Structure prediction request, 243 residues.
Amino acid sequence: MRVLTYSNYDEMSAAAARMIATRIAELSEPVLGLATGSTPIGMYSELARLHNEEGLDFSGTTTFNLDEYWGLDPDDPRSYHWFMKEHLFSRVNLDPAKTHVPRGIGVDPDAECERYEKLIEEVGGIDLQVLGIGMNGHIGFNEPGSDPNSRTRLVRLAQQTVDVNMAKGALDSLPGHALSMGIGTIMEAKEILLLANGQGKAEIIRRALLGSVTRDVPASLLQTHSNVVCMLDEPAAKLLDLS
Ligand code: F6R
Prediction:
């Protein structure tokens, strides 16, 4: 794993956006895996800027989001469909037919997960998967204890995850379940970009990067992937001794 540290959030976000822009330019039909949450918001803003000011062209790019709350309509502002529209899809020239987020309502969950896995397979897999990390080490919504071979499925969220996400969004309620790509699905991505910022992530980043590889810290399983770049701001890197 390559660990890159930046002095602040904006620099980390700009570097992450540059890496994505490079892959979009290099690959003829790029397939990106995308995350929601507070961490990638700066990266999405920078991608929108690169599109508007430097002509970064998303028209040939396909995207797959990691997860969606179970029971939320895409038009619900709490949904990850909404988040993606707000932060990226409405700001760049992605083809709506090529942007995929699991459907969290009005579908049979097992059939939806199977459909999602097939879609990823049909386009030849994910070239670059962007990940954030939960306070408990989750990646996607694969909570501690998740099977390293898991595929896209309906998952129960840890209470801590629901509480943290409600607090971040100043929300009164969020579903306790979600559809999430599995750890096996994520690990099949050809390249992974793990992002974390802020001092609150320092301890879990230390455990994920330097601790033992265990399903109790799902992000630690990334140590076994051959092509991971981890971008951190200084506060998140504080407990790593990189000397
Ligand atoms: C989001 C996702 C989650 C978040 C994680 C960190 O699609 O799958 O794993 O990446 O919860 O969230 P933030 O960035 O809000 O700290």
Remarks:
- Residues 9-26 form the longest helix (18 residues).
- The chain has a mean pLDDT of 97.
